[in-house]
Design a protein that fits this description.
mainly alpha; 3 helices; elongated
């Protein structure tokens, strides 16, 4: 699987996890039993995928700071 195909898979999952974190965080009083157990696990998964996303986009990030024009 190349980088672009992997990002097309990872990015929507990250978006859904981000929305999930927002919803469960906002309604934490109403969903406390669910919030207490599932919210931290999904947050950890979101952080893991964010690190993987950064790893996949590292050439672009590096380009932004070094000023090189070509991305592999």
């Amino acid at each position: 699987m190349n980088r672009q195909k992997t990002l097309r898979f990872v990015n929507p999952i990250m978006f859904l996890l981000l929305v999930y974190q927002g919803v469960t965080g906002f309604f934490r009083a109403d969903m406390y039993s669910h919030f207490k157990f599932v919210h931290p696990v999904m947050g950890g998964l979101l952080l893991l995928l964010a690190g993987f996303h950064l790893f996949l986009n590292w050439p672009w990030v590096k380009n932004q700071y070094t000023g090189k024009k070509k991305i592999k």
